[in-house]
TrEMBL record:
Native source species: Bradyrhizobium zhanjiangense
Source superkingdom: Bacteria
SUPFAM superfamilies in alphabetical order: Cupredoxins
Lineage start: Bacteria, Pseudomonadati, Pseudomonadota, Alphaproteobacteria, Hyphomicrobiales
Protein name per the record: Multicopper oxidase family protein
Region (Disordered): 308-330
Keyword Oxidoreductase listed: yes
Plastocyanin-like domain ranges (all copies): 57-161, 169-289, 381-474
Pfam families documented for this protein: Cu-oxidase, Cu-oxidase_2, Cu-oxidase_3
UniProt keyword terms in alphabetical order: Metal-binding, Oxidoreductase
Length: 475
């Protein structure tokens, strides 16, 4: 990745117990203090890539670092970083570091947390990621078009002591709507689609290409980091012939478990880390199928076993549990309770709820939260729907009154998912994006410890920009 140019290398870690300052915040990470930030340059610009894998069918895209997906950015937990973002697009942009608990001014929401980066200009983001895990980055301006044209990349924060695996793989999954000439179909922000499932495309890429094969070796143990960067496509993945173990969701470690019914739900913006023991037969291929939409089942890629003897006879018995991140535990007995009602969109029978309409144009509101429709990607003067006292624990009950699925994302915090329709969620998994099913009520809890104005929105981008968005203030 030559476009990733760390011009200042990180200072060497101190050996043993000599470091003090940063290790107080991140126990177990001894390091020198103060630490010079690692510097990374990132440009957003138009480009041409081959998504379908043949050089004579190139697609005009917008991309980071001249590639699709953008370069994997790998940092270490507790290591400060300075990211210089240059805008070479024909319009304003920003970058949101999705899932990172960072200072509000670094959150990348135009108008709300920073002025937009104008064409030809640059903005420097600086933060120290407190949590290890799988995160991602994407624009928060003209999101439908900018994300839909390819601006997205993985942001990996490495644990000081990762679980031992043979390979650490990242699959950035992206959904495109391509015409037969491989060009991106125009018409972002179609009111009809916006009131339904959003702009679901017709071509899914793995790390920027329509994938036939993912070469694997029998017996190896792989950590597979999945990132769904789609505008709207929800995925339900099955690994034929394999039993993946989920070890982290949205970057946050969880109790290692197998997906329910072997089907891994991955909505837009969600990440899942899997441990995959390659127990298939050398020389064989096993499909990775996505069957979320009944009528649109397809396979994403195939685990293609090399015709080689297995690396080992049995899976290693080393533990799969990742070290936990320094998240504040919400105090449920003293929490503030708030309700969010998610409303709008087309009804199953073709009727209309809410204030928008299928004749709606562009960002016309068709969705709302508690009766308010905040549209777009962020702008100045967005009044907060909720104000939470800093340090207070909060339980948010999100009631989906619509006929559609909504992956709800909160900026600046990670939350525990407490319950679904009143039934406790096992281990109260941490997340930053929670998929709320049609008519479902999901309760989440977190400590409002990060001051500032934070977005809370659906990550089906059409839903976000047409009203399913609000601001939560921590003060
Ligand atoms: Cu990944 Cu406000 O979004
Ligand atoms: Cu939604």
């Amino acid at each position: 990745h030559s476009d990733l140019s760390p011009t200042i290398s990180r200072r060497a870690l101190l050996v043993g117990g000599t470091a003090v300052a940063a290790s107080a915040l991140f126990p177990g990470i001894p390091r020198a203090a103060p630490v010079e930030p690692k510097v990374i340059e990132l440009s957003a610009a138009p480009g041409r890539v081959s998504l379908v894998g043949s050089p004579d069918t190139e697609t005009n895209v917008w991309c980071y670092g001249n590639r699709i997906p953008g370069p994997d950015i790998r940092l270490r937990q507790g290591e400060p970083v300075r990211l210089v973002v240059r805008n070479q697009l024909p319009e304003d942009t920003t970058v949101h570091w999705h899932g990172i608990r960072l200072p509000n001014a670094m959150d990348g929401v135009p108008g709300l947390t920073q002025p937009p980066i104008k064409p030809g200009e640059a903005f420097t983001y600086e933060f120290t990621p407190p949590d290890a895990g799988t995160f991602w980055y994407h624009p928060h301006a003209d999101s439908l078009q900018q994300l839909g044209r390819g601006l997205a990349g993985a942001l990996i924060i490495e644990e000081p002591e990762p679980v031992p695996v043979d390979r650490d793989l990242v699959w950035v999954l992206s959904d495109w709507r391509l015409r037969s000439n491989a060009q991106i179909a125009p018409g972002f922000g179609n009111g009809m689609e916006a009131a339904m499932s959003g702009r679901v495309g017709n071509t899914v890429t793995v790390n920027g290409v329509v994938s036939e094969d993912e070469p694997v070796r029998a017996g190896e143990r792989v950590r597979l980091r999945l990132v769904n960067t789609s505008l709207a496509r929800i995925m339900a993945l099955r690994f034929e012939g394999h039993r993946p173990t989920i070890v982290a969701i949205d970057g946050q470690p969880c109790e290692p478990h197998e997906p329910d019914n072997g089907r891994l739900l991955l909505a837009p913006a969600m990440r899942v880390d899997l441990i995959l023991d390659m127990q298939g037969e050398p020389g064989r291929r096993y499909r990775v199928v996505d069957d979320f939409y009944d009528d649109l089942s397809y396979w994403l890629t195939q685990l293609a076993y090399k015709d080689e003897p297995p690396l080992r006879a049995h899976p290693p018995d080393s533990p799969l549990r990742l070290p936990r991140n320094p998240l504040p535990e919400p105090d449920l007995t003293n929490a503030e309770l708030r309700e969010l009602r998610l409303q709008g969109g087309m009804m199953g029978g073709g009727g209309m709820m809410g204030m928008g309409g299928m004749m709606g144009m562009g960002n016309q509101a068709s969705w709302s939260i508690n009766g308010h429709s905040m549209t777009g990607d962020g702008h100045a003067g967005m009044p907060p729907l909720l104000t939470l006292r800093r340090g207070r624990s909060c339980v948010l009950s999100m009631r989906n009154e619509t006929a559609w699925w909504h992956p709800m994302h909160l900026h600046g915090h990670s939350f525990r998912v407490l319950s679904r329709n009143g039934a406790p969620v096992p281990h109260r998994q941490w997340a930053d994006t929670v998929l709320v099913r049609p008519k479902e009520t999901v309760e989440i809890a977190f400590v409002a410890d990060n001051p500032g104005d934070w977005m809370l929105h659906c990550h089906v981008t059409d839903h976000q920009v047409s009203g399913m968005m609000t601001v939560l203030r921590v003060a």
